[in-house]
Design brief:
The chain has 345 residues and is of the alpha/beta class. It contains 15 helices and 12 strands. The strands form 2 sheets. It has a 7-stranded parallel β-sheet with strand order 8-7-6-9-10-11-12. The chain has a 5-stranded parallel β-sheet with strand order 2-1-3-4-5. The longest helix has 20 residues, at 292-311. It is globular, with a radius of gyration of 22 Å.
């Protein structure tokens, strides 16, 4: 297959794809607007943060597979892909450790005011009296919103610091999740409102869906105790940013954020975020999954998805496909001629 890799991707895994007979075009600086022309002649696309629009998919002449080298697929127009018979796959869980580590880092930074410490020292200011005030993590009540792979991995780290983990009870949790949660001594409450009232740290680990959009709104923020900490390393649009700013100014809420509603869709650019500039916010640049460990784990799974796709029967969906039904319904779906091996060329 001809594969366009439109974001950063480790060289050794590009070499592994080439060793399997694939031709990789490595263009990590491709923007969302450039994809429409860059996709010509390519059978597969691998992206991380670059948005894949309906226009790009419609302009592609041979695209059959889009892989998001991460967990969420909200930056990809899955409906357009399905209409054109293009499978969309993600790589869930492989970046859980990295995101959990960053979330924990933001919590520690907020508790100890680490960025302000550094800024003052670099400016030749010594203010031990100010920075000696910290609550510590031990004994805090940490509410985890979203007990998926990332949420649980963060909860395990918070618990190891002596924090009490809390979450919302749900009837459809799988047994493995419940086992891990109970092993941490997780306290389950009946509602998100109760979770906010109970905890002084609220950490969000949910996908971007219609149900989670603006999940952290004025109503939920009003339930938090004064001085509470909010952590969001999932998606920017789950937060009502104006409401969060009001809560920071009126109720002393502080926030550790890795994502923002209007962040750039490419790796570099400019950002004008009133929320990111707020003094109660410690922010990072959507780097939750950006550790060497995570990128190697994700890249290895991308190679596995490509291999599975090219060796499967034409009607068989690749691993972690999120739009199987849409592709199945696509009346114009056309598979390449069989190579005789039962798989895709």
């Amino acid at each position: 297959m001809r594969i366009l890799v439109a974001d950063a991707f480790p060289e050794e895994y590009r070499a592994e794809l080439a060793a399997h007979g694939h031709h990789c075009s490595y263009e990590p600086d491709t923007t969302a607007d450039e994809l429409a022309t860059s996709l010509a002649g390519h059978d597969a696309l691998v992206v991380r943060s670059t948005a894949v629009t309906a226009e790009a998919i419609e302009a592609a002449d041979s695209l059959r597979l889009v892989i998001r080298a991460g967990s969420g697929t909200n930056t990809i127009d899955r409906d357009a892909a399905g209409r054109h018979g293009v499978y969309v796959c993600n790589v869930p869980g492989r970046n859980a450790i990295a995101v959990a580590e960053l979330t924990m880092g933001l919590l520690l930074a907020l508790d100890r005011n680490i960025p302000d410490n550094v800024a003052d020292l670099r400016a030749d200011r010594w203010d031990k009296k100010r920075y000696a005030r910290a609550r510590g993590i031990h004994g805090r009540k940490v509410g985890v919103v979203g007990l998926g792979r990332i949420g649980l991995t963060f909860a395990e780290r918070a618990a190891s610091f002596g924090a009490g983990v809390h979450a919302v009870a749900k009837p459809d949790r799988d047994e493995r999740t419940l086992e891990r949660a109970h092993a941490l001594g997780t306290v389950f409450v009946d509602s998100l409102d109760e979770l906010a009232r109970t905890c002084d740290v609220l950490s969000f680990h949910v996908p971007a869906t219609a149900d989670t959009r603006m999940l952290l709104d004025r109503h939920l923020l009003a339930q938090l105790p004064p001085g509470a900490i909010v952590l969001n390393t999932s998606r920017g649009d789950i937060v009502d940013e104006d409401a969060l700013i009001e809560a920071m100014e009126n109720n002393g809420v502080r926030a550790g954020l890795d994502v923002y509603a209007d962040e750039p869709s490419s790796g570099t650019g400019t950002v004008d975020s009133r929320l990111a500039k707020h003094p109660n916010v410690y922010g990072t640049h959507h780097i939750g999954a950006s550790t060497e460990q995570a990128q190697h784990a994700v890249a290895a799974e991308v190679v596995r998805i490509v291999t599975a796709f090219t060796t499967a029967e034409p009607s068989e969906a690749p691993p972690h496909c999120v739009n199987v039904d849409a592709v199945t319904r696509a009346t114009a779906l056309a598979y390449p001629t069989s190579t005789g091996s039962g798989g895709r060329p």
